[in-house]
Design goal:
Bound molecules: adenosine-5'-triphosphate, magnesium ion
Structural class: alpha+beta
Largest sheet: 6 strands, mixed
Number of helices: 12
Oligomer: single chain
CATH topology of one domain: Nucleotidyltransferase, domain 5
Radius of gyration: 23 Å
CATH class of one domain: Alpha Beta
Number of strands: 22
């Protein structure tokens, strides 16, 4: 069921090695290409391709043909930029119905303290997974150790090499509908790339935005996209909760379109042109007046700001707050880090500080200084985070454990309960223990 050693790196070609990440967004599809700078852990982003996304709504594929067309254009754009044909990618996706479920597991290490080996960590992860029941038609996308305890001492970052008699784990499993994964794989394959790995978007966005200090002290990240808000909560360097709220900037655009009775493309323009989150100032007109398609429009600006601010207040103080509460993390000294296209709105950080009652930082991608200048803004945090995700998994394969493609291929859509994996025998256990000790 779990593939502990699988990495999602794209393959090498022409003597140098590339990593390719693909962000399936509601507004745009982004393909990021990075070149390795060393055998492990370092890569330089060398190109970012993109295309408008037309077959995705609220983060979920709703039209296969349109999505394949958008993907093909984005892949071509990236390939032209780096002058290489791309062959495979790690794909970031989201969609409604993403569940983040925590389970606990425990193993005994023996009657006397001994050193924890890698196989013990695999066993304790499996013991926590045995306590998880995956609903029919769903599958585990990620298995993420949240916290280890050794002989009752909690907060162990990495038990490998430490001594003890009992190892406990809290595990977070990200559960997604099998059909969503199959649609994603189907579209990417039809657009000409093999899927070498999958990552849930809030995780990629968090890795793309959070500084190491923020991820250790406790912080929440919101990727405020077009159709969704990806939410993640990190503490002690590990994700404690990941969620997708199916509301994003496009809902604000729709609200403006409804209030002003104008098409969404004009509403989108107005949203970007007016400082809808800024405090009223004498320089700003009280009324919004414009001509469109031969008609004159006028609306009091405060009416528009009320509608937009109400939408964002509800989004952050209800839906996003609920997800932060679900993480169980009660103190977030690192505050709220906001990224994604919605974070472009003028003064959104000041406005949100009042709503969430904690410090708010608008974050560019951590790698923005090494990304192409026109494609290094807040909209590209998730895409750049995919490369960080792949590299982090290579450094520590037990930090973010992939689902196995074989397991998903074995899932029958009509009866999607996959057969239980064969349990390791005591004989295998002894052999592995022997191999690691000697
Ligand atoms: N200057 C701006 N002011 C306000 N909103 C903006 C601005 N620029 C972009 N946006 C909004 O950002 C959203 C797109 O963000 P982004 O590119 O991060 O989305 P996406 O990744 O494609 O979508 P998702 O992650 O939700 O699937 C749109 O709603 C767009 O209107
Ligand atoms: Mg996005």
């Amino acid at each position: 069921m779990l593939s502990f050693m699988k990495t999602s790196a794209s393959s090498a070609y022409r003597g140098s090695e590339y990593l390719v990440g693909l962000d399936l967004g509601t507004s745009k599809i982004t393909v990021v290409v990075a070149e390795r700078e060393g055998p492990y852990g370092e890569a330089q982003i060398i190109g970012i391709g993109q295309a408008p996304s037309t077959g995705i709504r609220r983060g979920q594929i709703v039209n296969i043909d349109q999505t394949v067309k958008s993907l093909t254009r984005a892949i071509e754009d990236a390939a032209n930029m780096v002058g290489e044909n791309l062959s495979e990618a790690t794909v970031a996706f989201s969609g409604a119905n993403v569940q983040s479920i925590k389970t606990k597991g425990m193993i005994s290490l023996g009657r006397a303290p001994r050193t924890v080996i890698k196989f013990d960590i695999e066993r304790v992860i499996e013991s926590a997974q045995a306590n998880l029941s995956v609903p029919s038609g769903r599958m585990i996308l990620h298995t993420i150790p949240v916290e280890y305890s050794l002989d009752g001492t909690t907060g162990i970052d990495d038990p490998l090499g430490m001594a003890g008699m009992r190892l406990d784990i809290e595990l977070m499993s990200i559960i997604v509908p099998v059909a969503i994964v199959q649609n994603v794989k189907n579209c990417v394959t039809r657009a000409g790339l093999e899927v070498s790995g999958l990552v849930i978007k809030p995780l990629a966005s968090a890795l793309g935005a959070l500084t190491p200090e923020e991820s250790v002290v406790g912080s929440a990240v919101v990727d405020f996209g077009g159709g969704t808000c990806g939410v993640s909560v990190f503490l002690e360097g590990r994700p404690k909760h990941l969620a997708v709220v199916p509301v994003g900037g496009d809902h604000i655009t729709n609200d403006i379109a409804v209030v002003l009775k104008i098409p969404t493309n004009k509403a989108e323009e107005i949203k970007k042109d007016f400082a809808l989150f800024s405090d009223p100032s004498p320089e700003q007109p009280n009324s919004l007046e414009f001509e469109y398609m031969g008609r004159s429009y006028a609306c009091p600006l405060d009416k528009l700001t009320d509608v937009v601010q109400c939408r964002v207040e509800e989004l952050f103080s209800v839906y996003i707050k609920d997800e932060i509460t679900a993480s169980g993390v009660t103190s977030l000294p690192g505050g709220l880090i906001v990224t994604g296209g919605g974070a472009n709105s003028a003064d959104i950080d000041r406005y949100l500080t009042k709503i969430v009652n904690m410090p708010v930082r608008v974050s560019l991608p951590l790698d923005s200084g090494r990304m192409p200048p026109s494609r290094n803004g807040v909209e590209y945090t998730c895409a750049s985070g995919i490369i960080r995700y792949v590299l982090e998994k290579e450094r520590d394969p037990l930090k973010y454990i992939d689902y196995s493609f074989e397991a998903e291929n074995n899932v029958n859509i009509i009866d999607p309960i996959a057969p239980a994996p064969p349990r390791r025998t005591i004989f295998q256990y002894v052999i592995n223990l022997f191999k690691e000790l000697f």
